[in-house]
Design brief:
The protein has 275 residues and is of the alpha+beta class. The chain has helices spanning 10-24, 26-33, 48-58, 68-90, 97-122, 127-136, 138-141, 156-167, 172-179, 201-208, 246-268; strands at 37-41, 44-47, 144-153, 220-222, 225-236. A hairpin with a 2-residue loop joins strand 4 (220-222) and strand 5. The longest helix has 26 residues, at 97-122. 19% of the residues are buried.
Length: 275
């Protein structure tokens, strides 16, 4: 997805952060950002490396892929950002503690993310790590699935009225079509197969104690309103093969490796919590 030029994208925020740094120590920062420049704005150089970061953050393109016209347009964008940053400095906005804290937080996130990516690249999860994640989640992946209908209304009194009609022999599907206020009403309150961990806690807890063919004898309240639930079927969910969810498993294994690495750094660090 391309980001509108009318917004201030992450690439622009990165540029402003780098601009603020370069204004504090122009000699050292310019060397760090490389000697190539795309413009000089009021004596302040705009390094080509900053333009490249800006472009990757907005259009996901490399600077070398641009036509001369496209390059000129991007440079113009960056000059505009530089002018705004310089004006903010003139008007004292950059001395704001809030802005300074935001820039520092962004710097921390960017540097920490670079370190995390570097660590994972040098220490990719092994097949054993990936299998361990799969085994840890096997119970959830192969858990019970439920097929149910529900009638969602806005008040407890309405739900109790629905239950009273069911006790008198009314058909659940008919009541759902007549009285349900949720989007499933027209199809008789039917829900797709689901696992308990995918539903609101109160809804899941009610279904957990039900047997197929029964409905809830008390209204079930969730953030969406009050439910009357009919449990139709249950089935055992077959777990997917490792290959089918490999990308998710790799991501989870990477997160675990990174969490363990952070714990190691924390144990080796001297950390003093201030009151």
């Amino acid at each position: 997805m391309r980001i509108s030029r009318n917004t201030l994208p992450i690439g622009a925020l990165t540029l402003i952060a780098l601009t603020a740094c370069s204004q504090e120590s122009s000699t050292e920062t310019s060397a760090d950002l490389g000697p190539a420049r795309v413009a000089v704005v009021n004596g302040q150089p705009v390094p080509e490396s900053v333009l490249r970061v800006y472009l990757l953050g907005t259009d996901r393109r490399n600077l070398d892929e641009l036509t001369p016209e496209e390059r000129a347009a991007v440079v113009n964008d960056v000059i505009g950002l530089q002018l705004l940053a310089q004006q903010a400095d003139k008007e004292g906005l950059t001395s704001s503690r809030t802005l300074a804290a935001q820039l520092e937080l962004q710097r921390l996130r960017m540097v920490a993310n670079a370190m995390a990516n570097d660590y994972i690249e040098r220490n990719p999860p092994s097949e054993g790590d990936i299998q361990a994640i799969y085994d840890e989640n096997l119970e959830r992946l192969s858990g019970q699935q439920y097929k149910a209908r529900h009638i969602l209304v806005t008040s407890r009194e309405e739900a109790e009225s629905v239950i009273a009609q069911l006790r008198q022999g009314a058909a659940f599907i008919d009541l759902a079509q007549e009285r349900a206020e949720g989007p499933t009403g027209p199809n008789g309150g039917a829900l797709d197969w689901f696992t308990l961990d995918s539903m609101p806690p109160a809804f899941a807890e009610a279904v957990r104690g039900m047997t197929a063919g029964s409905y809830t004898m008390e209204p079930v309240e969730t953030e969406f309103g009050f439910h009357v639930i009919l449990l139709e079927e249950t089935r055992k969910q077959e777990p997917p093969a490792v290959a089918d969810i490999r990308n998710d498993l790799v991501s989870a294994a990477q997160r675990k490796l990174l969490d363990d690495y952070i714990k190691t750094l924390r144990e080796a660090a001297t950390v003093t919590l201030e009151p």
